[in-house]
Amino acid sequence: MKHLRNRPELILSPVVFVVFVALWENIVNLLEVDEIILPTPSRIGDALLVQFQAPIFWSNLWVTTQEALLGFAFATLFAIIAGTFISQIRIVDKTFMPYLVGFQAIPKVALAPIFLIWFGLGQTSKVVLAATIAFFPILINIIEGLKSADNDQIRMLRVFGASRSQIFFKVQIPCALPFFFAGLDVGILLAILGAVVGEFLGSQAGLGNMVLVAQFNFETPTMFAILLVLSAMGIIAHIIVKAFQRKFAFWGDNSNFIGN
Amino acid sequence: MSGLHKIYNTRGGGQTHALSDINFTAKKGEFISIVGPSGCGKTTLLNILAGLISKTEGSASVSGHEVSKPLPEIGMVFQAPTLLPWRTILENVMVPVEVQKLDKKKHLEKAKELLTLAGLEGFEDKYPNELSGGMQQRAGICRALVHSPSVLLMDEPFGALDAMTREYMNLELLRIWKESNQTIALVTHSITEAVFLSDRVIVMSPRPGRIAEIITIDLPRPRTLDMMNSDAAGVFVKKIRHYFNAANVIE
């Protein structure tokens, strides 16, 4: 009980949730809002349960998960390659950074129709869109991270006779890890966004496709239910990235570790 | 290795004459301090010996090797402990061994011995941020000694510590030095620290950085903190302070 007193948010957060849902439920009932405009939380819950029992939902969930994860994986891979070259070779940095910044200025979602023409209605176009959207924040974090190495640490390694590659592997890469995971954290959410937006614009399967179908049929509770599923995907992905971060970059956010 | 020779004959380059006509030889196992007001080039001198910056003219050698890049004969302790936060204390101490690709097994023993000597037994598997500033700096000294360098360079190693810890660290350093018997070149701001620790103190004066005087401190060893209140020590401190006053720089 004592740690509950020290951390009142453990009680307050759920209370806020319950109050919010109760208000929503009652106000919608009271005002007799049409379900097509705004369904009650209980109706959304029902719709969610219906989906959980439908095999087609699970296969759609898998389609979107695949697209997001593949897009995320490609984005990470290319960001690592590009980030390493850009941070290590000055001329590459100077030559390509203006293009990358210009590329970043494009609203990537606007590329979706083009990707649809190039890669078709299947999963490929969604993977490409997810990768395109997730790429830049991961890249920027890798570059910043690789440049973040403390000059004193580099000097220390040089005094002991370290070569450039030893400095890269023993100082610069570890220094980049906290940044890298911060980039992954943003990147995975953007990859999910990319996959869903890609599905909105033209698809045969996936959660985004289900939202479209539900909209066509005026099944607003189902749309909300899938929104919840997408949120859950994002939260789970975030938790997984954080867990990796705590394992592999434990010194990053533990500055007040002393005294434990 | 026979007698150790270090000959600095260095001239600073460019428009700023950082070091001018420095001539000095340290004997093997000698404890040398370098003091002087800001801008006298004492850190520049240390960086040349560490092989981090190049010299314009003259020569600098360690154990008969001309210093043109960082030499394995040199260990260095920095102003900040500069431990790598993702490595345990033991792994930090092993950095020079890894970098120079020395025999890991043999040096692991050496690293543990040094940590015990520095009073860090039981902290081998802790991470740097679990240790106090003084303990981190002691780990930094162990790291500088693990590959058995013949010369230990120290760049204001205790500058960031409070006065009490600093005195304690001075005693610790003398104890470690007695065991390992390196030649030590210590750059410091503290005149009393220099007198307390050294066999000889190089007093430098600024613009251009040159040696104003080399003072031999013939206080008996082992030295105690009480000795610093003696008249003999007071004379040395006064003599060195005279140069600081002459340069009109208060630090």
Automatic annotation (TrEMBL), chain A:
Membrane topology, from the record: Multi-pass membrane protein
GO cellular component: plasma membrane
Keyword line: Cell membrane, Membrane, Transmembrane, Transmembrane helix, Transport
Alphabetical list of InterPro entries matching this protein: MetI-like, MetI-like_sf
TM segment ranges: 12-31, 68-87, 99-121, 127-146, 167-197, 222-241
The keyword Chaperone is annotated on this UniProt entry: no
Protein name: Unannotated protein
Organism annotation: freshwater metagenome
Automatic annotation (TrEMBL), chain B:
Keyword line: ATP-binding, Nucleotide-binding, Transport
One Pfam family per UniProt: ABC_tran
Domain ABC transporter, first and last residues per copy: 2-231
Keyword Transport: yes
Alphabetized GO MF terms: ATP binding; ATP hydrolysis activity
Keyword RNA-binding listed: no
SMART domains: AAA (SM00382)
Protein name as annotated: Unannotated protein
Organism name: freshwater metagenome
